[in-house]
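Extended Data, panel c. Modelled sequence:
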Amino acid sequence: MLMRRQRAVQLDGAKSKAITLIVKRGTWRDRHVDTVWWQNDEASRVHINDAARLRCAGAFAKRISMRLDKVERASPIDAGHATGGGWLRALEMTAPIAKSPTRILPHVIDDVAAASGDAPALLSDHECLSFRALAERARLYAGWAARHGVSKGDVVCLLMPNRPEYLAIWLGITRAGGIVSLLNSNLTGASLAHCIDIVAPKHIIVDVELLAAFASARPHLTSGAKVWSHGDAGSEVPNIEHAVGRGDAAPTDDAHAPTIADCALYIYTSGTTGLPKAARVSHQRLLTWSLWFAGMMGTRPNDRMYNCLPMYHSVGGVVATGAVLVSGGSVAIRKKFSAREFWDDVARFDCTLVQYIGELCRYLVNAPPHPAETKHRIRLACGNGLRPDVWEQFKDRFRIPQILEFYAATEGNVTLFNLEGKPGAIGRIPAFLAHRSPTTLVKIDLNTGEPLRDADGLCVRCAVNEPGEALGLISDGRTNVGGRFEGYTGRQESERKILRGVFKPADAWFRTGDLMRKDDGGFFYFVDRLGDTFRWKGENVSTTEVAEAITAFPGLTEASVYGVEIPGHDGRAGMAAIVGSPDLAALREHLANRLPAYARPLFLRLRGEIETTATFKHRKNELARDGYDPAAIADPLYVHDPERRAYVPLDAALYRRISAGQVRF
């Protein structure tokens, strides 16, 4: 029987006692208890060697006691030995959130500031804030919000490039009860106006660098918000820094302060499939993201995160910052990603952590060797979207000790973590957490994008390694925010993301829109974005798989694959926009050796670059709309000639024959 109490444990290199939970293979249906593979195919071990986790181990064992065979003591082990520690740390750090409904992220920063004082919190080339300065600055913005009529639920839009002040602004305004809408700093005109209007703000804060972009949106705006500038540019727009400096800071315990159930931020979808939607992010979700990732990464006061991702997104704006700050560590912020200056920055700021997205890693491995690319102290790289063809190159070339890949979405309730560093896997859910995050894959009709249903009208689960859409069961989320779907500002948009009657008539599941497969070890793998996968010659074509095959060809660093319609043919044929000028005969042979005939792109479009969103996602919809008409496209176009077994130039005459249905593929 597991003891509920254990002698105190000293960490940081000192010897410590530990316990090991051992679960027999025969009584645990999943092959994992935590994140450690069983040894000798007999038992799976969860090592617990942290004092706080030892105290809660009794409750942990009680929850799964029906599945435990025995508990044994273990010899002292190193604190980082078991990847299971990440899961247990995350559970421990997030457990108190629901018990303190008025304690929000700004209060956590206050506590760290009280303990850390002048220790650096946020750094950049032009601006640095200590923890004390960050907390004080945030309280000044809270005071400004209170003086200017920002009540609980009122919206303030923030249009600003990456910088330390960015975080101070939204920490302060959300502390006062306002909702801060984080605007994409790359938008202009009608798109920017759309993002502003759908949240109906009371105030808009615009950095002086982006006043011109905002001016382009102004003719399209319907909201009458007051506009404030930030920075020195002699603008006629009122300056918020002057207003903030003239006022008092908000009290540390405001009687009208928000609770964890209140909305804190609006974070927008990327807009790859239409105009962006504003996702609601509660204070509880902010705390959960920050503390959960702090536990998974094991962040500590001597850590420093390198963050070059946009701070208007959840990963760059909350995960990369909050997960380190809550532990007393610091964050080095760069305005925009630069492959040329990445390793200089990492070495110069002496970073121990890096936040990535997959395409960022691809750009780095495709860049020329850099003198500083291995002269760093990075202990862990955390992010999402790292593809198998880049994973090993990124890890080995740059000597990254650990990669923590995860899957999540700002508004979603499906979260997966790959603590084991299994190349290509986006994560898994340990068996003992399955009740907290019910996630499943269901079969999809790729022609309609809707789930297949059985004779009873219910969805059909996928078999092992069978691709299907990932769904997450929606819960009320009172204690487990991970199961909640907080939705968008638009009710119709929110409803479209919910699938009902999945396995029971009254159940409701969040639709991720992502096709995945799950192996027999419980690891999930990304297959494609639903809508990107298409059918050709009666077969399903994964655009991700085809793009990886193309970029494996020497000299081709980037490819975007999508389907296009051809008159007289069912389905959609593959088309690839590629960066480079390859030997087309050699490329054809390369693809023939790697892909079945139906998956090989029929059309090629050679480009100097492929337009992306701020998070490096290809704008496939625009490429697909362009199609393959040489009269509308200036780039060189090629089509595969089945008779000549070669890619040939696509000119106007050949295009007319294809459009008339005179060419059979």
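Residues 534-659 form a domain with the GMP Synthetase; Chain A, domain 3 fold (CATH 3.30.300.30). This feature is highlighted in the accompanying rendering.
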